[in-house]
Amino acid sequence: MLVELRVKNFGIIEDITWSPGEGLNVITGETGAGKSLVIDAVESLLSGRIGDEQIRHQTNEATLEGIFYLNPASRLKIAALLAENGQELEDDTLIIRLESKLAGRSVLRLNGSAISRSVLSRLCPYLIDIHGQSEHLSLLNKSFHLDMLDGYAHTTTQRTEFARLANELTSLQRQLSEQEKINREAVRQQEFLRFQADEIEAANLAEGEEESLLSKRQVMASTEKLKTLVHQSLEHLCSGQNGGALADLNQAMQSIRKIAEIDPALKNTADEVENTYFILEESIRLVQSYNRGLDFNPSELEDIENRLALIHSLERKYGRDIPQILAFLAKTKTELDNIGHFAQNIDRLGGAITDLKSRLGDMASSLSALRKEAAQKLEKSVQTELSDLNMGQVIFKVNFQTQADENGLPVDGQILGFSSSGTDLVEFFVSTNPGEPLRPLNKIASTGEISRITLALKSAASRLDDIPVMIFDEIDIGVGGRSGDMLGRKLWKLSQGHQLISVSHLPQIAAYADHHFYVSKTEFNGRINSHIEHLNTEGHLAELSVMLSGNQTGEKSLENARELLKKASIFKETSPEQPELNIPLSGR
Description:
The chain is of the alpha+beta class. Helices cover about 55% and strands about 20% of the residues. It is built from 16 helices and 17 strands. The chain has helices spanning about 35-45, 70-85, 115-125, 145-155, 155-205, 210-220, 225-235, 245-260, 265-295, 300-320, 320-390, 445-460, 480-495, 505-510, 535-550, 555-575, and strands at about 1-10, 15-20, 25-30, 60-70, 95-100, 105-110, 115, 130, 395-400, 405-410, 415, 425-430, 440, 470-475, 500-505, 515-525, 525-535. A 6-stranded antiparallel β-sheet has the order 2-1-4-5-6-7, with helices on one face. The protein has a 6-stranded mixed β-sheet with strand order 8-14-15-3-16-17, sandwiched between helices. A hairpin with a 2-residue loop joins strand 1 (about 1-10) and strand 2. Helix 5 (about 155-205) runs antiparallel to helix 11 (about 320-390), helix 7 (about 225-235) packs antiparallel against helix 9 (about 265-295) and helix 8 packs antiparallel against helix 9. It is rod-shaped and about 170 Å long.
């Protein structure tokens, strides 16, 4: 509730401190005294803006400050909202302060800390709802219509679950989009990747192959020199005029063997020489074999050169050596395999999305049916309230629409667009005169009609609306005494679940006030100043008398005022007690 409002240098208000109470607060006073100016101050505070023309003449700065006590529902939501912006709500009190200088910047603070207008605008729906000569009208914002209907229909639980699954669907669709983007890129690369893999696999490379080929090529390039060296070595080992080194060693071996037969002391030496002979003999065979191998087909060298050229070509493309080329091949094959996995993921996500859309479509259909059933009851209830307010000619309807969307949900044979609240587009329509077509509520021109239709709606759904403070600015425009009494009853009953503030000209409404405030203006040194006074019992009676008879008050007007108070008192005492508000509106 609004505990205190401090207004300084705003319009004709120099400095006032106003403390409305619980229940129904009625503000009355002479025309031009500044009754609606108090409401304008509240609205400016909540908008975070004071126009230069609103700053009191001959002053440079205006200040507005509101102190609010939060109910549990509002406190929870405001605390969560502030937490998103890195601020904390320490207790149940909220202090909003606005300072604005002529042609200068405004300073906006919440509990002493700077706050942006955008954050403040998000707080407003949890603090005050203003109805009257103002743009700050929740019911003129059609986004609140569905909230009210869901509260009335008790479908907030279903709506919350729908929103959860809708968020899950959005997440799946985002994943699918990302996978499809990746897959498109991969498919474009697939042909090139396959070409690279095929080129490497066709080469049939083996580790160590390049080193072996290089060695062979080196040998073949030195064949003539090798043949000369081999011939020379064989000449010395086994050819020559005397048979070479092998023949000489054989002669020496025979002689040493004969010595060992005479003197066994050289037997081991004879054995070693014999072993040396056999080793040399084997070496000669190997050299001879190597010599025969030096004869090769020139085309073999060409094959080696071609093979090395292929290897070097692949190295320029895929790696500095064969191991790196083979590693590149393995990586390429993995990427090709992943392209297949992308397609599988796309199929899996597509199936999950189809199933979830079907489930959401069924939920949307059920939610819509519950809403339409509740809408019929709300229409009848509002129609009754309008009749009580002498507006029986007004027709109220809850308009339902849907939009086709090829990417939407399957609902009863149609594909419908959806949001986190379902597939329904809900808006309140009215016809204010017989024969006139139904039109959106926010298209009605008359402020008085808007306010009373709003009161009818609020009365019909009052147990579901958790806005703590409601303000009705001159809701009684064009209303007579008999209708005024019914209006007063409606306002008082509505105030049993809210702090309600009403600027009024009708004594029939003021009679139901739990707190009556009188606004007046005085002149001092050529300046007009507005004041607000909390009337006691006698002042309340006197003001009702003036409102009934003008300044020509007397015993008769006082008696009439007492009758109004008595009538209001009896109604209050016999009216059923209003239950506590504990059903929050969805989405607020």
